[in-house]
Amino acid sequence: MTAGWRALTDELDHWASDGRTAFFWWRDDDAVTVTPALDRLIGQHRAAGIPLALAVIPAQAQPTLAERLEPEPQIAALQHGYSHHNHAGPGKKKSEFSADRILAARLADMQAGHALLERLFDARLLRIFVPPWNRLAPDCLPAMPALGYRAVSAFQARSSHWAAPGLAILNTHIDPIDWHGGDNAAAVERCLAMACAHLRAMRAGEQDMQPLGLLTHHLRHDETIWSFVAEFLSCTASHPAVRWLDAGAAMKIGAPGASAASPATPAS
């Protein structure tokens, strides 16, 4: 066991000693069709017995994906933008829902994307919006509850449960891929350290209580990432302080006035 894995276990032991529960959830991005990588992802999900939220790109989604998920009751579909096309201006970070486009056009894309996925996935589709590149212009947020969205999911620790009235924040926190340097072994160690840091901050009351989100991208995994995901799921799921939740239950954790120990829809 490496120092990173020992540190994670030690931190979870502190949660157990305090009689507290650390909630986790799992989101995987960029799903469009059935591939060997998707089959491997589903295999890991089944082996761990942990709920999975699959962020699907509406404009690229194939009927075969919906068919593949039919026998998988613990895999939810989330809306991953519309076409995953960058609309940010020159020199800006990539964003499909950038303020460089008028708000009405962005909201129309949201609605069109939801309609496409609803036809494919029906009740499997949750009203959680995942913006491509984890970026969304803030002026979208107040309008989203009226369109039926219940949560938005990006990447970073949240400082509030609500993005806008009626719209929760359900973020991810750790991503084991090195997107720029290609050193996934180093990225995995950083990922473990980041998981410990988030858990420690929540335990100390320095960070808003929230489910720790694992973010994966099955189409970009190498053997280092596949191995890390399998070990991370196994290590955490077997710990008495940890409870993995489906996305619907996870979005309720930390809601003002709600009990952090009793999500409405337990999933593991």
From the structure above, extract its key features.
268 residues, single chain, TIM Barrel, alpha/beta, 9 strands, globular, disordered C terminus, 7 helices
Structure description:
With 268 residues, the protein is an alpha/beta fold. The protein has a single domain (3-250), classed as Alpha-Beta Barrel (TIM Barrel), CATH 3.20.20.370. 35% of the residues lie in helices and 15% in strands. It has helices spanning 3-17, 36-48, 63-69, 103-121, 184-203, 223-237, 247-250, and strands spanning 22-31, 52-56, 75-79, 125-129, 151-152, 162-164, 167-169, 212-216, 242-244. Strands 1, 2, 3, 4, 5, 6, 7, 8 and 9 form a nine-stranded mixed sheet that branches. Helix 1 packs parallel to helix 5.
Largest sheet: 9 strands, mixed
CATH topology label: TIM Barrel
Strand content: 15-25%
Order of helices and strands: HEHEHEHEEEEHEHEH
- The rounded distance between the terminal residues' Cα atoms is 26 Å
Form type: globular
How many DSSP H or I helices? Answer: 7
Give the averaged pLDDT, no decimals.
94
* Number of separate domains: 1
Main CATH class: Alpha Beta
Task: Offer a quick outline of the entry.
The chain is of the alpha/beta class and 268 residues long. The protein has 7 helices and 9 strands. Strands 1, 2, 3, 4, 5, 6, 7, 8 and 9 form a 9-stranded mixed beta sheet that branches.
